[in-house]
Amino acid sequence: MKNYSNMSAKGIGFDLIGLHYQTALLESVAWNEEARDEMVEYITDYLNAKQIKKDVTPDDIKILLLNVEDTWGSPAKEVLKSIFNVETFYLNLNTQGNQDAH
Fold it and tell me: Per-domain residue ranges for the chain?
């Protein structure tokens, strides 16, 4: 099993490894570090595979969220959804800021 605790998923547009995110993910699986690590590995592998193909769609995110819910429960899904929402917001701010500079 890969240990992602010291790795960053920034290449996929967000940092799953931030302390706040790690704590929220850990809490969502009842403080089970092995379950959290497995979930982070699954999410990272899923998104990296999609990024390589350059074809991440909203449906892919919906599927990911459903798979997380089926495997790790609704709290884990809600935390991941929150992470996506926050990071999408910041990505949109950065994109908008770059457009304004031109």
Answer: 10-101
